[in-house]
């Protein structure tokens, strides 16, 4: 696992881009990010968990999708969205209120804090989801080991971990195209829309240099999570992993 001496200032970065984060996501994925989260949410709910943590919830898209799907299924798991950016969490709460106005009842608690020191008891959650957040926790992050051990601590033994994340594609051709997009398009267009070029340079760079499914599986295996199944989406540029705490 790559760790760096001086970490990128992720906290202030998300504080700066919170208001444009969703829009940039929609543009760069052609709106596909929603359907990836839908797939991940339906995978997570298959095990009928009672308590679910959406780690690095950001603007809450994943936990809100879990609320939508579970209410359609007539189940009511306790849902918690956790993130260290108060600005991102404010966006998430705003969206939750919008759902309430539309007479939907998302029962979600949003909690602010650092993934390296979570205010939850050991084994508190049956399932944990993390969509486009694990990269922040492990890639060139000097707290990577702490983040992974906290993830393991708050999940019950046998509990499920669902990860959706960017991935390094297998095909050389697609990898070349992907790298071109990440190097020459994402940072500048993302920077233009959000007003923060550095933030999108980091995002593009961490996506470009990120792991394959195999690399990620090895890191999580060492951290105490067993891979149950994996899928690659968009010709291998996005991974969906289903793991279990040993
Ligand atoms: C790329 S966003 C992903 C947001 C959301 N899960 C999604 O699917 O769009 C990553 C989120 O991780 C949060 N984050 C990064 N490092 C964190 C840490 N150490 N503790 C808590 N949250 C963290 C950031 O504030 C940001 O909201």
Brief overview:
It contains ten helices and seven strands. It has 246 residues and is an alpha/beta fold. The longest helix is centred in the last third of the chain and has 23 residues, at 172-194.
- Bin the helical content: 40-55%
Shape annotation: globular
* Average pLDDT for all residues: 89
Rg estimate, integer Å: 17 Å
Strand content: 15-25%
Let me know the number of strands: 7
Strand order of the largest sheet: 3-2-1-4-5-7-6
Structural class: alpha/beta
* Biggest pleated sheet: 7 strands, mixed
Can you count the helices?
10
N-to-C terminal Cα separation, in Å? 20 Å
What series of H and E elements makes up the topology? Answer: HHHEHEHEEHHEHHHEE
Q: Which distinct ligands sit in these coordinates?
A: S-adenosylmethionine
Q: Which consecutive residue ranges, at least 5 long each, have pLDDT under 50?
A: none
Question: Could you explain the architecture of this structure?
Answer:
This protein starts with 9 loop residues before the first helix and ends with a strand. With 246 residues, it is of the alpha/beta class. It has a 7-stranded mixed sheet, sandwiched between helices. It is built from 10 helices and 7 strands. Helix 3 packs across helix 4 and helix 8 runs antiparallel to helix 9. The mean pLDDT is 89. The longest helix has 23 residues. A hairpin with a 4-residue loop joins strand 6 and strand 7. Helix content is 48%, strand content 21%. The protein binds S-adenosylmethionine.
